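Quick log. Single chain, no ligands specified.
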Amino acid sequence: MTVVFRTALAGVVLTAAAAATAGAQGAAAAKKPQCEINTSSPFQVNGARVYLNKATATTGKADEKPQHLKSAIAALEPADKISNKLGRSWVLGQALLAWTTLPGRTGTTAVRRGDVGFTVNPGATIDLLAAADTALTYVEQNAPNCVEVVRSVRQQAWVPLINAANTAANAKQLDSAEALAKRSLEIYRDSPYAYQTLAIVAQNRNDEAGARDYYKQVVDKSVGDTTAAVRDMRKQALYNYAVLTQNSAEDATDAAKKAELNKQAIEVWRTYLKEYPGDTNAQSAMARALNAVGDTAAAAGVTTSMLADPSKYNDMQLFEAGTAAARAQRTDDAVKLFEAGLVQNPYHRDALFNLATTYFRAGKADETLRTAQRLVAIDPNNPDNWRLVAGAYQLRAADLTDAKQKKAATDSLLATMKKVGTIGARVGVTSFERGREQATLSGTIENLGAAAATYPLKVEFLDKGGSVVATSTTSVGPVAPKATQSFTVTGKGANIIGFRYAPLK
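-> predicted structure:
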C-alpha cells in the first residue's frame, strides 16, 4: 500500500533579518568570532570600498548606485596588480552581489563584464552569482573567523531569489520556481528552503525520485535549526522522505533493492518518531516497513499501542496493521486489529475478506461464517467471497460429530459451492475513494457466461450505521463472454464510509 505524502506551500517569505537563522547552523552561534579584513589598502581596495559604501547606502540617488558599483569593480582591476587578495575578494564579492539586488534584477545574473565595471576582457559574459561565490569562498577559506559575516552577505542576494522561487511555486509556475531555487543555491547552499521548493516542484511533476532526493537535502540542512518555520519544514520533509523511500521500496522489483530501501525508510521513520512522537500514520507505516524486511518482532512492538488503545487510530491504520500481523502469522493480533477497524468501518470489503480468511486459517468455523456472510451482503458477485462461506461450512462439518448436524453443514457446503458455479458475472473492486461530500467506487465486471451481456449495476453508499446516503446506478456493457469492462460510480453525500451493490445475474 502506497502512503500518501504530505504537501504544503513552498515556504514562508523571508526578510534579510530572518535570513540570519535560515541556515542549518543559523541558530547555533550565539557568539561570533572577530572578523577582521583589511579593506583600507592598497588604494585600489580602499577606493573600491568607498564606492561600494556609496552604492549600498540607504541614502543617495537610486540612479547613481549602478555607476558606483561599476566604479567599485573597475577599481579592483586588474587583479594581479593588487597585493591584498583577501581584501579585494571581500569587496568584489559584495559588489557583485549588490548588482543582483538592484530593482528588477532578481534572477538575472548573466551579464557582459564591461556592463558591471570590469575593464579586463569587458566583452565576455560573467555570471554574477558564480563570480561572487568564487570571491566569497576565497574569503571563507582564508579568513575562517569571517564565515558568519560572509554568510550574512550571501543571504542578502539569496533572500530575494528564494522568496521569488517560493512565490512562483505557490502559483504553480514550476519552471520559474525551479530556476530561481537553483539560482539561489549558487550563492547560498546551507539553508533547507531552496531544497524544499525544489522538492515541491518535483512533487507537482510526479517526480517521486527527485522529490525524495530534495527532501533528504531538507532533512540534512535543517539539523540543529530550532526556528519555528524550519522545524515545521523539517517535520514535513522527514515524513515525505520516509514515505517516498517506502514507496520506492514497494515499487522495486529487485529483492535486495527493496530490502535496502525499506531499511532506509525504517531509519527515517525512527528519526521522525523520535522528534515527533505519537504520529499514528508514521507508526503504521514503520510497522509495515518492518514487516517487509522480516523484523516481525519490532513490527509487533510498534503495533502494541494500537492493540492497547485502537481508538487513537483510524480504520485504515488498523486494517493495515491487521494485514501485517496476519502475514506475520500473529493471528490473535490480526483478529483484534481487524475487528477494531471494523467497529469504525463495518462495511470495508477488504477488511472483511482478510478477517474471514484469518478466521478460516485459524480453524474458527462460526467466526469465519459470520464474517463471510457480512462480506457477501455487500459484495455478492465475487466467487472468492462465497468460497469463504463454503469454507466455513467445511470447517463446521469437520468439527461436528452428530450425524444430522454434520449432514446439514455438508449440504450447506455443497449448496454454496453450487452457487459459486452459477455466478454469471464477477465484480472486481479496484478502488473506493472517500471524500468529505462524496465517495467514488471503481472496478470491473467480468462476464463469466457464454453470451454477451449488459449489467445494470446499482450501488448503495452507506454511512457507519448502515443507512443509505446515496444510490447510483450505471449500465455496464455489453460485455463479451470472458471479457472485462470497467465502471465508476459516485455517491454524493456526507459521512459515506462503505458501499454495497445489488446482485447481478
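The CA atoms of residues 113 and 124 lie 6 Å apart.
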